[in-house]
Write the structure tokens for this entry.
Amino acid sequence: MAMLKHTFKILATAMLLISANGVAQETPQSTTLPIATQETTNLADIATHLESDTAKTVNLTVDTATQIESDSTATDKKKKKKDKNLKFSLLGGPGYSPDYGFTIGISTLTTFKTVKSDTSLMRSVIPIHFSMSFGCPLGFTVLSRPYIYFKEDKIRLQGYYEYKHTNENYYGVGYSLNHNIERNKNVTGYNADLVKINPLLLFKIGKSRSYIGAVADFYYENIKNPGSYVVSDPYYINQGGTVEGMKDINVGLGLAYSYDTRDIAANAYEGMLFEARALYYSKYFGGEYNFGSITVDYRQYHQFSKTRRRALAWNILAKTKIGNPPFSQHADVGGPFNLRGYYIGHYRDNTTITAEVEWRQMWDIDPDTRLKRLLHRLGYTAWVACGFMGENIVKYNAVLPNAGLGFRFEVQKRMNFRVDAGYSFADHHVLFYFNMTEAF
């Protein structure tokens, strides 16, 4: 700025001399001095004005450059955040469940690509839900249902993993017992330590959308302080249960087939899944019983908008047990992923089938302001469902209608935190669920 100031003074002086000489040649000598003096004053004002304008221009240029640099930095930060491979989200808060009373729940979601440069590979998803209940005794649950994709999606590792230290209830086997028994801590209740490890490893068949692989199931349950009804149940007695409790271990191995055209497994808007699993549980594997298990899972999705934020999803899930399974391994309904609104394990028998239809919608709002960006991440679901159960695949003795509403919050792109409220028409109560990713 000092250099500019001196430069303008030199230019002003030069212009003054040129103007003075010109005026002296054209004007009588008596009027030259006043005119020169006036010109000098005007030129000084002009120089000062030019200096001020130049300073403003320079300041404006600097401010503009600073703003551009700031915008560029913000854009770079957003790009880096968008391009980040490992993403982690966490949500939690208090809640209430008729199963466990007052609870505090925390849900985490970790997503990543096993090969970051592979643009065709879906992001792997590891959701973990932790909840603590403040009943007597203090209980907690850890639950995870991950999807991990390897090597151009030629290998998939999925599964269901659960650990519980909670108060549970057992209502017997068969609808007539399940429906009519009173739910009471001293009658149907017991304290349980449960471990369930159910991995599924799939390998792609050529260039098709089909996969085949192996599945395993490890189930351990330690029952303590059983209620009066539990102690008198014939299945419980046949498994060696006493008034003090019992332990139950079963291990199954089997095969699985999957045909999958879903766009995103954790929150599909289009495509379908057909999956069949067959397992055999044996004493030779380290368990206590010999029996078989067959599960068939069909899911279909249809999108209703170009923005892919409205979809209809439906699911049919059939489970049947072959032979003489222990009561803990009978086919059941209910829980956060199937027939939401029924206590998990309340209804159990040799065979169960559930059918669900769910509407899913996220708010389609242009995210051009902070408030609109928040609203853009919100959505809801509504579903109707029905369950059937009986002794075998063709003989059913119970119909279990169900309906519910859900709230969705997008914690990562196409990955939602969900709060669901499901109503049981058979038992006339509402149950709430908090979890990451969709129910199916």
DSSP finds six helices and 19 strands in the chain. The longest strand covers residues 396-412. Confidence is low (pLDDT under 50) at residues 1-41. The two ends are 68 Å apart (CA to CA).
